[in-house]
Amino acid sequence: MKQLYTIQFITGYFIRSLILVCSFPAFGQTPTENYIKTQECLNTQCSRKKEIVMYYDGLGRPKQEIHVGASPTGKNLAIHYEYDNFGRQSKDYLPVPAGVGYDLIPRLEQQNHSFYHNHYGSSIGYSEKEIENSPLDRVLKQAAPGDSWKLGSGHEVKYDYQTNSEQWEVPLYYVSFNSNGTPRLEYKPEAYLRGSLYKRVPPMKMDSNKKNSPIKKGNSS
């Protein structure tokens, strides 16, 4: 099995990268899985380093990301990846301390649920998107981690998509060039045809008890 290693050496303000493709067996990682191991050396002797192992499924999609020994207790910080029936990543899992070493962690999704349930009282240790059932894959709702903010709680962020209409006309501009080739922006006394453009309405904070309102910058509620 060929393995791809990305090693970065950091000295002062300079970063040197070295990519090695090796044909010898690697030790520590799960040999039956596809993965890329990245090492970032924090000093010239590489006695201090950051290591990440990314495991991939048969379609080349990430399925588990392991930050080796990155938790305060020395355990790995691991991130679970999953996809819906259309191959879309609708859930973004939070990292969880699990396992040691470089091996693929079994039942990581269950460990994620157990960890956040035991420490925070909620097994929803991920954010989730409701995606439109069309080739555009547009996000309709965005939910946050936790039972109070999960999808279906009424506290999601809602996205809306509309087309231009009589109430939303867009003037038509075009670029012309003079004899010297200098571009100039000119206005045509007409607008784009109705339904030829679409807009994304600013996110709406959904509240089951109140009328939806646009989210304002700095609003932490």
Describe what you observe in this structure.
The protein has one helix at residues 108-120, and strands at 3-11, 14-22, 34-41, 49-56, 62-67, 77-80, 91-93, 96-97, 126-131, 139-143, 157-163, 171-177, 183-191, 198-205, 213-214. It is mainly beta and 221 residues long. A 7-stranded mixed β-sheet has the order 2-1-3-4-5-6-8, covered by helices on one side. The protein has a 6-stranded antiparallel β-sheet with strand order 7-9-10-11-14-15, with no helix packed on it. β9 (126-131) and β10 form a beta hairpin. The chain starts with a strand and ends in a 7-residue tail after the last strand. Mean pLDDT is 82; it is low at 8-26 and 211-221.
Principal-axes geometry comes out as extended
Q: Tally of extended strands?
A: 15
Which regions are unreliable across 5 or more consecutive residues at pLDDT < 50?
8-26, 211-221
Largest sheet: 7 strands, mixed
Q: What is the string of SSEs from the N terminus onward?
A: EEEEEEEEHEEEEEEE
Q: How much helicity do the residues have?
A: under 10%
Strand content: 35-45%
- The chain-level structural class is mainly beta
How many helical elements? 1
Question: How many structural domains in the coordinates?
Answer: 2
The overall pLDDT average reads: 82
Using the CA coordinates, give the radius of gyration: 25 Å
Distance between the termini: 51 Å
Spatial ordering of strands, largest sheet: 2-1-3-4-5-6-8
